[in-house]
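ugh ok fine here u go
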Amino acid sequence: MRAFVVKMPSGSRYWTVLDESMDAVPVADKFLRELRFGRDRAESTTKTYAGAVALYLRWCSRTDRDWTTAASDIGLFMTWLKYTPIHAGSSGVVPGPGAATVRGERRINRVLVAVRGFLSFAVATNEAPEWILGQLYELADTRDLPIEAQGEDARLSYRMRARHRLHEPDSPVDRASDEEIVTLFRECRSARDRLIVLLLARAGLRRGAVAGLRRSDVHLSVDNGLLGCLIEGPHVHVVRRENSNGAWAKSRHSYAVPVDFLLVQAYDRYVAERQECPAAASSDFLLVNLFRPPVGAPMTPDAIGELIERLAVRGGLRRRITPHMLRHGFGSTLADTGATLDEIQHLMGHKHHSSAQPYLHPDPARLRAAVSRVASPRLLAEDGAR
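structure:
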């Protein structure tokens, strides 16, 4: 079992699951097509789900289980995920005691989310018996939800809660430091690359949103009325749309992000650089290939990721830097400068307040200053008198 990308005649792509004969697994293919086109999920989401479903079907095959009823043994599947080597042979032998884990808690939980979705779809389409839903979910109430999610009337209601989930250890979401961002910027060898770094680090865009920007999305005038835009000041619009380069804005709703003078200057220099490439003139994509074939074609999200990693190596940074770490840095800087949660939510393109929480990494110096501010002047005076 393996995940495989499928390109539709329209140009849209999604990922499916192939069996040992290289044929698409029918129910998995239906589920993933429903996910991509019926539920309007990103291609990258179907890639993640296809990989998870392939793991589940591979486990069922290697352990002689019927995938439609194997939900009763999900606990054993979790153990298999945790300890079976990724490239294990057909027997899928689990290493003995003391062996290092192959997949962490977060990765296993994400696999379980996809498998539950797949099996629930199979039940809805009569491909699997209804009773397996009771093996996947249990009845729970709203008392264990955050206050924000309980509703204004605070009435007790019931919901289905996943039965199987591993505890994920608390770990701060990694962010790129200001020093690392400056290093990346200095290592850029073109105006285009400097603009990319700033869009990630000073506008907080995801790499998919950056790669999907069109020239018509960039409004850098003080008054943008001539462009039919009522938003004042320089900004970029993040719009979810189908893109030929596979770029995808994660947010379902369009939003505008104000940009500063550094990004405006970087854009102006990039435009001059781009005009020297005749092949780029016909593309409405903002970021195009200028230095390698196919020249003039839009950059892909993967190319942006490779660029950031290459800049980190060139700058001698001691760890791997990803585009999302620059985005985390932007969210953290907003928090450190006193931005409110709703401001962070909008600028990061989140639908819910809670989604902005992982990006809040207060600076330790600011936390210490906050503690100092609550110290009572009277207590300090009495302590000094002693």
